[in-house]
Amino acid sequence: MLNANQIRAARALLNWSQAELVDKTGLSMTTIRRMEDDKIGPERSSAGNVETVTRALEEAGVLFLAAGEATAGGPGVRLGADKQ
């Protein structure tokens, strides 16, 4: 499951502002801010909104990693080899 830290980290990898993510997804700024808020997060967003954000970030080259997929640590993000 996607979490708030992953969304923020993915934006940082792409050098996108929240406004750019709003533009790429068509979602409201309020929705993006709530999804990136550790106290709210995507867990409390609709499945459709989570899918929209995930798709936009993946289409830009972000790969989402589940806990244990990396060498150590929890869930994370990285850029695909063709985007580095």
TrEMBL record:
Alphabetical list of PROSITE patterns matching this protein: HTH_CROC1
Molecular functions per Gene Ontology: DNA binding
Secretion signal span: none
Gene3D superfamilies in UniProt: lambda repressor-like DNA-binding domains (1.10.260.40)
One Pfam assignment: HTH_3
Domain HTH cro/C1-type: 7-42
InterPro entries noted in UniProt: Cro/C1-type_HTH, Lambda_DNA-bd_dom_sf
Protein name, as recorded: Transcriptional regulator with XRE-family HTH domain
